[in-house]
Amino acid sequence: MKHVAGIPAFIAAGARAGLHMASQEERLTVIPGTATTEDIVKLMQEKGVAVIMKLSQCADEMHRCMELHPEYSYHYFENVGTDREVYLNDVQQIEERRFPYFSLLIVRNDKF
Fold first, then answer.
1. 10: which residues sit within 8 A by CB, 6+ positions away?
2. Distances 76 to 6, 24, 25, 87 between C-alpha atoms, Å
3. Phi-psi category of 98—alpha, beta or left, where left has phi over 0 and alpha has psi -120 to 50?
4. Which residues lie closer than 8 Å to 109 by C-beta, 6 or more apart?
5. Are 52 and 34 in contact (CB under 8 A)?
6. How large is the C-alpha radius of gyration of the chain?
7. Mean pLDDT to the nearest integer, 19-41
8. For residue 74, what is the enclosing H or E element?
C-alpha cells in the first residue's frame, strides 16, 4: 500500500475499486457528514454521483437511504490508503458495519 500526499481519499478509493467517478454528463458532488437521504435522492435524479465523507456523522441517514433505495449502487470505503483499508459494495455488508470517522460512501444510480 502506498500513500500519495495530495490525492483525495475519494479519488484513491474510486481508483482502488476501478470506478469511474463520473462519466459523460454525470455530476460529481462531494458532501460532508451532513448528507440526508433526500440529498442523495435529488442527486441521483439529476444523474449525479454522490461521495459522502465522514459517514460516522450521518450513519442513520445513509442506512435509511440504502433501505429505501436498493436500486442505487453503493461503494463503501474506510481508512483508504492504509493497511486497514476496507472496500465493500454489498449493501448488507455495508449495513452491518459501524462507520468510523475515516469512511466514505460513493453512491451511483446505474440506471442512467
1. 21, 30, 51, 53, 77, 104, 106
2. 21, 23, 23, 6
3. beta
4. 44, 45, 47, 48, 71, 72, 73
5. no
6. 13
7. 90
8. strand 73-78
Angle value at C-alpha 21, between 60 and 1, nearest 5 degrees: 85
In the prediction, which pLDDT does 25 show? 82
Give the orientation angle of helix 59-68 with respect to helix 37-45, to 10 degrees. 50
Question: Order of strands, edge to edge, in the sheet holding 48-53?
Answer: 27-31, 48-53, 103-108, 73-78, 86-88
Closest CA relative to residue 103, chosen from 86, 91, 89, 90: 86
The amino acid at residue 68 is L
Residue 81 pLDDT grade (very low, low, confident, very high; cuts 50, 70, 90): confident
Give the integer Cα–Cα distance in Å for 41 and 67.
12
For residue 39 the three cell numbers come to: 440529498
The pTM of this model reads 0.90
The predicted model gives 2-27 an average pLDDT of 80
